[in-house]
Amino acid sequence: MAGRLAxxxxxxxxxxxxxxxxxxxxxAAEGAKVIGCDLKVDNDRETVEMxxxxxxxxxxxxxxxxxxxxxxxxxxxxxxxSYGDFDIVYxxxxxxxxxxxxxxxxxxxxxxxxxxxxxxxxxxxHVLPVFKRKGGGVILNTASIAGxxxxxxxxxxxxxxxxxxxxAGVIRxxxxxxxxxxxxNIRVNSISPGVILTPATGFxxxxxxxxxxxxxxxxxxxxxxxxxxxxxxxxxxxxxxYITGTDxxxxxxxxxxxxxxxxxxxxxxxxxxILETYRAAAPSGxxxx
Length: 289
Description:
It is a single chain. The chain is α/β, with parallel strands linked by helices. It has a single domain, classed as 3-Layer(aba) Sandwich (Rossmann fold), CATH 3.40.50.720. It is built from 10 helices and 7 strands. Strands 3-2-1-4-5-6-7 form a 7-stranded parallel sheet, sandwiched between helices. The N and C termini lie far apart (59 Å).
C-alpha cells in the first residue's frame, strides 16, 4: 500500500535529532523524498544514514544557519536541485536561551528571535516561489505550548521569556501566512508540542525529575519525538487538505488542564462535601447565583 506521502518531496529543518529526526524517518517511511538541514553535521549525517538504512530517500545540507538569508536561499536551491520542486516545508528547527526578563541580555534576546522567528520568516518567504511554480504546497511551523499558556514551565518558573514570546509569534505568523498564501493553494499550519523528551529538554527532566512535568499533564507520560512526527505527518498529508490557519496542540493535556494536571482526589472530595452542605442548607426550589 502506498504511503501517505508517496510521490511527495518534503523539506524538513533541524533533522540532526529529536523531533526533526523523527519526522525525517517517518516522512521517508511514508514515501516522501526528504531534504534535511542542521548545524550539527555529524548528527545530521546519522539521520540521513538511518533513513537510507530503512529504505528511504534523504539528502541534507549541513551546516546550515537558517537565520542567514543567503544560507536559506542556498538550502532551497539545494532542495530543488536534489529532487525538484518540493511539496512540503516543515520548519522544525529552533533554539533559544532561557532567562527571566530582568536577566536576559540583548544578545540572548536576539539569539531567540533569530533562531525561532527570523529563521521561519526567511524560510517562509523564500519557499514561496517554489510553491507558486508547483501550484500549491504545505507549510508547517513548529510553535509550542510556551506561546499559549502560563510560563510554559513547571511552577510557572519565569525562565523562558524570549522563547514564550517567539513561539506565540510563530502561531500568529502561521495564521497570517495561511491568509496571505491562500491564493496560491498553500496551506499553512503550526504545531505546538508540550514537554517532548529530546536532547534539548532531557537535561531539564534529569534535573527536575519526570514527575515535575507529568504532574502537569492529563496523560501521565512525557511526549516522545514520534508523537510530534505523527501529528506533523497528518498536517502535511492530504488527509489534512481542509485544514489551514490552525495550531495543533500536542501536549498530553497541559494546555487543557491549565498546567494543573488530573483532578486532585482530596480537593475534589472537599468540593463535593461543600456542595452537599450547600444543597442541604439551600431552601427547596431556590436558586442562587
